[in-house]
Amino acid sequence: MLADYNGRFTMHSKIIQLLYILWALPWTLVGLGFGLLGLATGGGMRVRGGIVECHGGMLAWIFERLPIEPMAMTLGHAVLGRSEIALDITRSHERIHVHQYERWGLLFVPAYLLCSLVLWMRGEDAYRQNPFEREAFENE
Ligand SMILES: [Zn+2]
Fold first, then answer.
1. Is 106 inside a domain boundary?
2. pTM for the full model?
3. How would you label 34-43 residue by residue, b for 16+ Cβ within 10 Å and e otherwise?
4. How many domains does one find in the chain?
5. First to last CA, the chain
6. Centre of ligand 1 from the C-alpha of residue 15, in Å
7. Domain ranges, residue 131
8. What separation in Å is there between the alpha carbon of 124 and the centre of ligand 1?
9. Cα(37) to centroid of ligand 1, in Å?
């Protein structure tokens, strides 16, 4: 019976995992689009722990032009980085964002941006004070 229970538990976990993947899929597809752009322009792509990590090429050029010049950015189950080293340095932080996408799904980006907007309107740090970033920095 224990084997049966374990079998069902494993199947249950796989279904939950599939739902997380589907729930975050719209943003993952956006991330993969940018990842393919990076790959086509000299960058790289790899899978680590079920997460697609993309780096370099046009991605590095884009990152250098973003206002806060991030080293990496998570979109669903895809993480974009300036370089492989940037992905290694930020991996634990970005994994927290992956879990946030699994919780918020399609709503993650609007919720994140709304938090940043409210903080910016209050004159606070729209990045560091953002609750999604605070959770990531506290748990990385
Ligand atoms: Zn972050």
1. yes
2. 0.89
3. bbebbbeeeb
4. 1
5. 39
6. 28
7. 25-139
8. 17
9. 22
pLDDT of residue 7: 59
Could you tell me what percentage of the chain is helix, strand and coil, using 3-state DSSP and rounding each to the nearest 5? 65, 15, 20
- Token pair for residue 6? 């374990």
Centre of ligand 1 to C-alpha 136, Å, is 6
Distance from residue 17's CA to the centre of ligand 1 (Å): 22
Which tens digit of pLDDT belongs to each residue from 90-126?
999 999 999 999 999 999 999 999 999 999 999 999 9
Mean pLDDT, 10 residues at a time, over the chain (140 residues)? 54 89 97 97 96 97 89 97 96 97 97 97 96 94
C-alpha of residue 7 to centroid of ligand 1, in Å? 36
Q: Kindly state whether residue 7 falls inside one of the protein's structural domains.
A: no
